[in-house]
Amino acid sequence: MNLTLCLQSELDKINSSVKFINSSDGVKINTEFYAFAKNKDRSVYVSTFLTSNEYFLQIEDKELIAATLITYKLNEIAQIIDSWLEGINSILSIQDKVEIDSFYYDLLVLTETQILEKRWFNLIERIENKEIEFSVELIKAIKTHFWKLYPFFSHDFLWFSDIIGIKNDNFSTPIISSINGDFAIRNGIYGKNILFSSSVVNEIIEKLGELVKFDNEISKNPLK
Asked: Which sign, positive or negative, has the C-alpha torsion 209, 211, 212, 214?
């Protein structure tokens, strides 16, 4: 069975205008086990395995995972793909058919402030539980001054974005590390260039105030 061909057949049966492109710039993107389609900011990924009759659907909106579905019914997937890529349905209108991603759901129903409060709370809790190696005192001080930015952790290094949940390449963010009580501000996670270091929390906060430029505006919801 060729997944791409079978899925296209199901879409054709319901007179869908969605077409799976087999290749792009000479690169094969749809195969017998994988299918992809996109329309503007909306996209879908479908996959299966040789040893399984199950199909996995991943729905994305502006490169964010919106929802997923595991089913044995290819026609069910085709109907969802058609309505999603044609812009007919929102995720909330098909929430009885798919599993909505929790973060994406928050973007739909919560304010920017509520999302940021939830994010900072969860990160502080993980640090307190030793899941992330970072100073509790420092993260709480950073939150007090920079709560309007969206925080990320990569390998126990903290950095920011002014777009909720998405890295903004146009936003200059320093990288903060906290290892054994030594705090450092770097220009990259793996870079050796340390811009500033101190064991005093207030000194780190003061330096971050010089380096982080965001006009005190709250991070934007990428769906709005």
From this structure: positive
What CA–CA distance (Å, rounded) separates 10 from 37?
14
Query: Rounded to whole angstroms, how far apart are CA atoms 56 and 34?
Result: 10
Residues in the chain: 224
Residue 214 and residue 171 in contact, taking contact as beta carbons nearer than 8 Å: yes
Low-confidence ranges of the chain (pLDDT < 70): 22-29, 188-192
Alpha carbons 208 and 212: distance in angstroms, whole number: 6
d(CA 36, CA 47): 9
Burial (CB count within 10 angstroms: exposed 0-12, middle 13-18, buried 19+), residue 105: middle
Distance between CA atoms of residues 159 and 111, nearest Å: 22
Beta strand residue intervals within 40-84, DSSP E: 42-47, 55-61, 64-71
Q: What is the pLDDT of residue 191?
A: 55
* Residue 135 neighbours by CB distance under 10 Å: 21
Name the token pair of 173.
Answer: 């963010």
Q: What is the DSSP letter of 66?
A: E
